[in-house]
Amino acid sequence: MSHKEPSILFKKSVFFIGTSVFLLHFFLIALHCLPDEYLSERWNSYAHYYSYPVFHQGWGLFAPEPQRKYKRMELRYASEGAWSEWQHPEQWSEDAHFTWRLGPWSKVYHVNQGAAFHLWQEQDRFEKQSKMAEDYFPYSMGYGVAAHYAQEYAYHCLENRPIDSLQVVLIILDPKENGKEQRLEYPTFIPE
Amino acid sequence: MKLGSYIQGFTSGVQSPSTIKLLRNSLILVTAYLILVLCLPNAQLFWGEHSLMPSLGFPDSWRYKIIMALHQDGYGNLYPLFFLSIGLGGVLYFFNGFNRIATFLVWLGVIVLYNRAYLSMVGGNYLLQSLLFFLIFADESSHAKGKWKVISDTLSNLALWACKLQVIYVYIFSGAYKLASEQWMSGEAVFDILHLKEFSLPLIMEYLDSFHGILVIIDYVAIAYFILFPFLIWSKKWKVPLLIFGVIWHLGMGWGIGVMDFSFIMIASYAAFLEEDDIIVFKRLFTRRIKVGQT
C-alpha cells in the first residue's frame, strides 16, 4: 500500500502541538524546581500539582546546603514488662555498606538513615511549634516512619518475641563539635 | 536554516536513532542493576507486609492511585507484578524491539516499586524515572508510514530533546543552588559531607583533616562543573572531555559518599548527548583499547 506524503501543514501542526507540550512541561518543571518563596501561591500550586508524583525532581546533589550533622537511631523493645538493651540498627548494614559499595546492603543502610533523617526533620518541625511531645509526635510523619521502621526491624532482625511497646531515640552528632552527641527521646510507641 | 525546512527535517525522520538506542540501552542496563542487584535481594525488607517503610497517604487522584499503588490497603503484596513488568519490558525490548511498550513497562515497574520503597531512593532515581518516561515516546526503529510516521518521528525527536533538557536541568538548578549556598561558596561543603559517617568511608574520615585543601579545590571544581556543563556540552571541542570528566567525577563521588546507583544513572544519562560521530569515536577508542589489551 502506498502512502501519500503528509502535507507541510500537517507536519507544522504536529510540530507546534508537540513543541508546545514540551515547552509547557519544562516551564512547569522549572517552576517546581524554584524555591517556593520565589513564586506566588497560585503558581506554586500549578507547578507542584503538575510535578507530583510523576515528575518530581528529587535530586538535590547536596544543594543548597549539605547536612552538617550525623544522625542515627537507637531502639529498644518492651516485652512482658522488661525492656531490651538499646539496639543500633545502623550496624545491621553499615559494615557491608562500607566494604562493598555496589551491593544491596547499601540500600538497607540508606533506608535506615532515611528513617533517622525523617525523624530529625520532624524534630525540627516540632521545635517550631508549641504542642507537647506527647501531643505532637504520635500524629507526625517523621515519628511514624521511625516507629514503623523500629517495629519491622524487630520483625526482621530480633528474636521473634511479642512486642508490647518500643522506644526510639535519635542521636545527633556534629563532627566539628568534638564528637559531642545530642540524645533526643520520643514518646513510647505501642504497636497495634 | 529557515523554520519551514527545520520543521520538515524534524518531522520527517528520527534525527539521532543511535543516540536514542544507546540512551535506552544504558538506562535499561542501569535499571537491571538497580532491580537485580539492589532491590531483589532486599524485596522482603522493602515491599510487602513487613516493609521497613510505612505506607503513606496520598491525594485522591488517578495519577497517585497508579504511582502509589503499593501504598493502598490490600495491594501491598502485589509488588512482584511490578518486578514482572520490568522483566517483561526488558525481554520485549531486547528480543522484539517494541521500544515504546517495553519502555512503558520498565518505567511503570520502576516508578511504582521505588515510590513504595521511598526511603531507599536517591536523587538519581527521580532522574531515571523522568528519562524513562520521555523514552516511552521515542521509537528509533518505527515502521510507521504516512501521517503516523510524522507523529512517531516528531515524538522521538522531542523525547530525545526532553532527555537532554532534563539532564541540563539537574546541572543548572543544582549548580545555581550551590552558587547561592554559603557552605558551597566557602569551599567547605565537600569537607562537611565527607565528615558525616553516612556519606563517607572510615578510611576517608581518618585522613580528612590532612586533605582539607584538596577538598576545598574539589568543592570549587564541583561548582564550576555544574555551572559549565549546560554550556560546554554543546561544544564539539569540549563535549567528550566534559563527559569523560563527568564519568570520573560521578564514579569518585559515588564511591566516596556511597551512592553508586546515583552515579550509574548520571553516567547513563550522558548517552543523551552522544551524537552519531561521538559514538563512533568512543567505539574506536574502546576497540583500540581492547586490541591493545589483547596484544
Question: Care to give the gist of this entry?
Answer:
The complex is a heterodimer of chains A (about 190) and B (about 300). Helix content of chain A is about 45%, strand content about 15%. Chain A has about 190 residues and is an alpha+beta fold.
Quaternary form: heterodimer
Mean pLDDT of chain A: 94
Q: How large is the radius of gyration of chain A?
A: 24 Å
Question: How many structural domains can be distinguished in the coordinates of chain B?
Answer: 1
Strand content of chain A: 5-15%
Q: How helical, in percent, are the residues of chain A?
A: 40-55%
Account of the protein in words:
The complex is a heterodimer of chains A (192) and B (295). Chain A has a 4-stranded antiparallel β-sheet. In chain A, helix 4 (105-127) runs antiparallel to helix 6. Chain A has 2 domains: 1-65, no CATH class; 70-185, no CATH class. Chain A has helices at residues 8-33, 41-51, 94-99, 105-127, 133-136, 141-157, and strands spanning 70-79, 82-83, 165-173, 181-185. Chain A has 6 helices and 4 strands; from the N terminus they run ααββααααββ. Chain A is of the alpha+beta class. In chain A, 29% of the residues are buried. In chain B, 73% of the residues lie in helices and 0% in strands. At the A-B interface, helix 1, helix 4 and helix 6 of A face helix 1, helix 2, helix 3, helix 4 and helix 7 of B.
